[in-house]
């Protein structure tokens, strides 16, 4: 029987970890050891790749409101293939286990990068977030939920985080859901408008006001089981959303009507817990954005290596080489920035409200990396589509989907204006920039090759922060998004140059220098860049993983 999908994709059947030498080396650098993710890379490149594309096109989740006995179930029917994928990733590959088993949480994000499909990864991310909050702030429920949420039990549990409401979106202070206490329980009433995993989740986190509390700092965090203590449905699923992508995750509207719930942590401190939980998922968003971009890049890279025009391969045309160079340099900087931020998070993971300086520095970085990686993913996937010409716009081929999928990453977990406002708060009130500048000053001191380029980027980073600090509130907010972009690109270039210096891999040094010119200075490459391009764009070559 013909393997039809192999005729539609240029990377189907390839090991997505083994061929991605830049990712391997960046991950090794921040992990301090080599992870064997080759088995997951093989799965990501074949069964997972085909299945997620098929779900997007043919087999999306369906809402089922009633049972055969006429009882309200408000459940979701997903294909057996999707069930199999989720079970395999949770149980066999243990994508949610590392942090809870005493390992670096970076392993979770590395696996998420390889999964990349944002619908499937959203289901896993929400479940991981739920386990994280319960584990850290609700020890009484640790044994009830966490083992099932991370795949340590035979029966899998799925989680969800339902925070936003129609009238406020990211402005949680505008929420209207109320909580009343009685009989040792809390009862929540209100509507949650963006509720992913609705109908799938066994337990969800949500927020509500109670008593005289109001505003963002009056919210409390609650845990809502799918079934109440009488075994009845604890909430209603009004409808599922129609979306342009991320179709494998059901996103709906949830109605809470005296829904039984349990408070997590201290009353009135939900904004801290939610912000921290969002930091977990913003890093997921960054890892997914990079993974999406990598798959799109690989599709374009292998396609240009076999498609001929005007008597030679596409990849032999200088203009195509430049496009691939732009994509790869931008992607490597995004990956380096992402895993630097994850390293910081792993080091500050035990901090609790009111949090220490290390956590605040991590939070500042997370706002920046979320924004940079999302924008980069949208740009890289668009270029990958273009490099395929007309067939890149046809939905029958998988490369088209990656651009659609990338477009959610600037929106999920707070759009760029939200990230800019939160970045300002971390700088103005938490003074998190002090630790950031000190850290990058130390990084700069370890650089020898391309030091001038790194110093120029550091000056751009520092000047951007100094400019914001010199402005009034409204002026700073007006310029914050642009400053956030300059800061992110400046740090990405420095990190690539640093990785190259520390590992002796000159391809990273070159990539960082090219990044600095193209995305920090915003100038065209010098003509000699075409001679450097080959060593950078051929991401699957053995030389990319060797010291040059």
Automatic annotation (TrEMBL):
Positions of the Acyl-CoA oxidase/dehydrogenase middle domain: 160-257
InterPro entries documented for this protein: Acyl-CoA_dehydrogenase-like (IPR052904), Acyl-CoA_DH_CS (IPR006089), Acyl-CoA_Oxase/DH_mid-dom (IPR006091), AcylCo_DH-like_C (IPR036250), AcylCo_DH/oxidase_C (IPR009075), AcylCoA_DH/oxidase_NM_dom_sf (IPR009100)
Residues covered by the Acyl-CoA dehydrogenase/oxidase C-terminal domain: 271-427
Cofactor(s) the protein needs: FAD
PROSITE patterns (alphabetical): ACYL_COA_DH_2
Key words of the record: FAD, Flavoprotein, Oxidoreductase
A Pfam entry, by short name: Acyl-CoA_dh_1
GO molecular function: acyl-CoA dehydrogenase activity
SUPFAM superfamilies membership: Acyl-CoA dehydrogenase C-terminal domain-like (SSF47203), Acyl-CoA dehydrogenase NM domain-like (SSF56645)
Family per similarity comment: Belongs to the acyl-CoA dehydrogenase family.
Protein name in UniProt: Acyl-CoA dehydrogenase
Organism: Ferroplasma acidarmanus Fer1
Lineage, highest ranks first: Archaea, Methanobacteriati, Thermoplasmatota, Thermoplasmata, Thermoplasmatales
